[in-house]
Design a protein that fits this description.
The complex is a heterodimer. By secondary structure, chain A is an all-beta fold. In chain A, the strands form 2 sheets. In chain A, strands 2, 4, 5, 6, 9, 10 and 11 form a 7-stranded mixed sheet that branches. In chain A, strands 1-3-8-7 form a 4-stranded antiparallel sheet, with no helix packed on it. In chain A, β4 and β5 form a beta hairpin. Chain A is built from no helices and 11 strands. By secondary structure, chain B is mostly beta strands. Chain B is built from no helices and 12 strands. The model of chain B has no long low-confidence stretch (mean pLDDT 92). In chain B, strands 2, 5, 6, 10, 11 and 12 form a 6-stranded mixed sheet that branches. In chain B, strands 3-9-8-7 form a 4-stranded antiparallel sheet, with no helix packed on it. Helices cover 0% and strands 52% of the residues of chain B. The chains are: A mainly beta, B mainly beta. The interface between A and B is medium-sized, with 21 and 20 residues.
Amino acid sequence: DADVTQTPRNRITKTGKRIMLECSQTKGHDRMYWYRQDPGLGLRLIYYSFDVKDINKGEISDGYSVSRQAQAKFSLSLESAIPNQTALYFCATSDLRDSWEQFFGPGTRLTVL
Amino acid sequence: AQSVSQHNHHVILSEAASLELGCNYSYGGTVNLFWYVQYPGQHLQLLLKYFSGDPLVKGIKGFEAEFIKSKFSFNLRKPSVQWSDTAEYFCAVNARNTDKLIFGTGTRLQVFP
């Protein structure tokens, strides 16, 4: 079984809709991250969380919000989706026990029409 | 602010050719360095990492990278590429006093038989 899972894997939605992307992990890691990937721009950090009570903005947090429901779950929400949020979204986890290497989920491809 | 530059955006090689992908970072302090690979349709996987010690690091699938501190570089190399190496390659850096990864924009490698 995959250590980091994301649902859904693909989603097509319309402008203005609220969307939630979910991430779960079985690695027991404290730290979780949300990135978006755009062609030619690499991965950019949206939000990150060092534990359940800790949420931090990344470099491109506008238009997004997150919730850390438990150590194993970290959700990303788009309150009112817009077309330029069309991208591939990755969740990742890390922990001191794994020397802070980040482990990535399979990604969610989101299309906003 | 930290940044990571990957100057080769798209590299096309024939099988058995040698590969070197450039990665330069801007940060004056101690860093951890990573190369990740993303095969078509898949999530990011760690190729290799450097934390300390021998600046020549060997990773999976015959890849290696050399950390040259004076040049702020961490170039990825492989003596003889295979068609299965076709993928996108990302260099990433984090400063020792944080664990946020800063990614380069990626290099797309295409290997033809």
